[in-house]
């Protein structure tokens, strides 16, 4: 006898090019689901699950999906997707890792995983000190990353410059 989940999947689920693209969008939006206070390893496990789903789905369907699979096979692409997903929440560690162009996905994942929670959460303190505040605030990073026009910028160059001044 089939389980209810198996029955529903066999009856209604269809692997299509649209479902593949929807899965890719889920991978790209994964960074919005990082929860403060949760270990970075928890997010990286979700990332791996999502990446593997996209990779598996890219095997079939249309030729463009198969071309995307070739892209997904690149270790550096996986590394860069992970670091991009983590960059808004772990600015300093990611910034340090992106300067190492020969770093593999496994090495980047290991380095992020091995950082203590104090090091990962220390970015708020660093930004507050750079901005001249004694108390770290969530808006310190936003203010630091704003250019003269008031729009948010990439930020990493401004932070590096501010650290050199210290």
Describe the fold and architecture.
The model is unreliable at 122-138 and 147-166 (pLDDT under 50). The chain is globular. The chain has 166 residues and is mainly α. Helix 5 (75-87) runs antiparallel to helix 6, helix 5 (75-87) packs parallel to helix 7 and helix 8 packs across helix 9 (138-145). It has ten helices and no strands. Helix content is 69%, strand content 0%.
Work out the helix count: 10
- Structural class, judged by helices and strands? mainly alpha
Overall geometry: globular
Secondary-structure element order, as H and E?
HHHHHHHHHH
Report helical residue fraction: 55-70%
Percentage of residues in strands: under 5%
Query: What Rg is obtained from the alpha carbons, in whole angstroms?
Result: 20 Å
Question: What's this, in brief?
Answer:
By secondary structure, the chain is mainly α. It has helices at 4-12, 17-29, 40-57, 63-72, 75-87, 91-98, 105-114, 117-131, 138-145, 156-165.
């Amino acid at each position: 006898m089939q389980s209810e989940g198996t029955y529903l999947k066999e009856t209604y689920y269809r692997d299509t090019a649209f479902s593949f693209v929807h899965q890719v969008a889920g991978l790209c939006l994964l960074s919005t689901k990082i929860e403060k206070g949760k270990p970075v390893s928890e997010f990286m496990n979700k990332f791996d699950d999502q990446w593997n789903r996209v990779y598996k789905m890219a095997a079939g369907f249309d030729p463009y999906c198969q071309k995307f699979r070739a892209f997904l096979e690149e270790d550096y692409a996986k590394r860069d997707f992970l670091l991009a997903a983590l960059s808004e929440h772990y600015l300093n560690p990611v910034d340090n890792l992106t300067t190492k162009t020969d770093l593999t996905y496994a090495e980047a994942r290991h380095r992020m995983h091995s950082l203590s929670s104090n090091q990962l959460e220390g970015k708020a303190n660093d930004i507050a000190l750079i901005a001249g505040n004694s108390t770290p605030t969530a808006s310190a990073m936003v203010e630091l990353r704003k250019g003269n026009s008031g729009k948010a910028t990439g930020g990493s160059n401004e932070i590096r410059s501010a650290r050199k001044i210290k």
